[in-house]
Amino acid sequence: QVQFVESGGGLVQRGGSLRLSCDASEIDFDIRPIYWYRQAPEKSRAFVASMTGYGLTTYAPSVKGRFAISRGGAKNSAYLQMDNLEPEDTAVYYCNSRPPLPWGQGTQVIVSS
Predict the structure, then answer these.
(1) How far out from the chain centre does Cα 95 lie?
(2) What are the CA-CA distances from residue 67 to residues 22, 26, 27, 36, 49 (Å)?
(3) How far is residue 3's CA from residue 101's CA, in Å, rounded to a whole number?
(4) Measured between alpha carbons, how far is 77 from 93 in angstroms, rounded to an integer?
(5) Residue 21 confidence (pLDDT) above 90
(6) Which secondary-structure segment (H or E) carries 45?
(7) Sign of the torsion formed by the C-alpha atoms of 90, 96, 97 and 99
(8) pLDDT band at 26 (very low <50, low <70, confident <90, very high)
């Protein structure tokens, strides 16, 4: 069964940076698309960024220009580089693919003002 493991979250001040990692068992991100989502407190899970197997990227308007999605060194890994973080970016971040697979535990990002 596919399992997603997210890591790299933490507490950072406004304007800071974090790089999130995604490791997915039994997934080849050279073929399958990569999706990052986030869920803020008391809000629904929301799309953040994606990358197709061809490398085409898409970003939510709120993060465009600040976040960058990429593949990792291994076929089953991916990153989300987050720069110029804002308190509104505080959320639990998840990676997944399409069609959607069972969710991992996510990684918590807290941005203080």
Answers:
(1) 5
(2) 15, 26, 23, 11, 8
(3) 8
(4) 15
(5) yes
(6) none
(7) negative
(8) confident
Residue located via tokens 């969710």: 103
DSSP secondary structure code for residue 25 in this structure: T
What's the rounded Cα separation, in Å, for the pair 8 and 30?
22
Token output for 99: 């069609």
Give the number of residues written for the chain. Answer: 113
Q: Could you read off the pLDDT of 59-102 as tens digits, one per residue? A: 999 999 999 999 998 889 999 999 999 999 999 999 999 888 99
User: Nearest 5°: phi and psi at 38?
Assistant: -145, 155
Phi, psi of 24 (to 5 degrees): -125, 120
Residue found under tokens 């990358």 = 51
